[in-house]
Design goal:
The protein is of the alpha/beta class. It is built from eight helices and seven strands. The N and C termini lie far apart (41 Å). Bound molecules: ligand 1JT. The site of ligand 1JT has 16 residues, from helix 6.
């Protein structure tokens, strides 16, 4: 198995619709040891329930509010105490205020801008620092992004700018960590109906348009993302770093 007995930290499972859960599920099938970070008690309970259903008991849950420096210290200290080292990390965390995901980008508030950068982008830098400290000889780090970080996608606005900075961080971190044989990559996912996405106005319209236009004529699913995550977290992708893999049923090749 491709990630057999690997210790992998997964940030961003809130419930069964989370992209991070799709990735975790694939890791469970491939016998990884998973460490979940969560924000709120209700997320912890959701994760425990999901894992119980899978009959998966060999895991760790740690609280980590990505906006609090001491939370990283505590979380990674506890991870080190239990596992000694880690082999991989998955970052699937983002936030923007709902009112900033529509209308004109120029109406973005300073507070909203900084909040989305803090949670969606800086957290990846900070987590990569702590995760890489626990990696020996080699490691793999991945994050989730969206086309709106590279192109103008209507309404994505402040999140697009946060994803642009996340994608730039992937390249700088790949440079920092390459000599230590730690690879850093992004997965650019097509739109997925998660709890956060459902809160966005006109999201269903975006999904309909996506199915109509995407070369494969369908939506991306959790398994598609889990498969690419498995590739990136395993030795199948040895030699790949600083890359952004589009798992979007071909949508991003379109010029119309
Ligand atoms: C967040 C939200 C990050 C929705 C997100 C996201 N990354 C992708 N989506 C889905 C999406 C959202 C919009 C969109 C296209 C896709 C919700 C708040 C938390 C962070 O516009 C075209 C707005």
């Amino acid at each position: 198995m491709l990630v057999d007995n690997k210790n992998i930290v997964i940030m961003g499972v809130a419930n069964k619709w989370s992209i991070a859960w799709g990735i975790a599920n694939k890791m469970i099938e491939n016998n990884a040891n998973l460490i979940f970070t969560y924000l709120e008690e209700r997320n912890k309970i959701s994760i425990e329930k999901l894992l119980e259903k899978e009959n998966y008991t060999n895991y760790m849950l740690v609280k980590l509010d990505v906006t609090i420096d001491e939370d990283y210290e505590n979380a990674f200290k506890m991870i080190k105490e239990k596992y000694g080292h880690i082999d991989g990390m998955v970052h699937s965390v983002a936030f923007a205020k709902k009112e900033e995901l529509s209308g004109n980008y120029f109406d973005t508030s300073r507070e909203g801008y900084l909040l989305s950068q803090n949670i969606s982008s800086y957290s990846f830098v900070k987590a990569s620092k702590h995760a890489s400290d626990l990696m020996n000889e080699k490691g793999q780090i991945i994050c989730l992004t969206y086309l709106g970080g590279e192109r103008v996608v209507l309404n994505y606005n402040v999140m697009g700018v946060a994803k642009a900075s996340l994608e730039a961080s992937v390249k700088y971190l790949a440079h920092d960590l390459g000599k230590r044989n730690i690879r850093v990559n992004a997965i650019s996912s097509g739109p997925i109906k998660t709890t956060s996405a459902k809160g966005v106005g006109e999201f269903s319209k975006l999904m309909d348009g996506f199915i109509k236009k995407a070369p494969m004529g369908r939506l991306v699913n959790h398994e598609d993302l889990g498969n690419t995550a498995l590739y990136l977290l395993s030795d199948l992708s040895s030699g790949v770093t600083g890359e952004n893999i589009h798992v979007d049923c071909g949508y991003s090749v379109l010029g119309y």
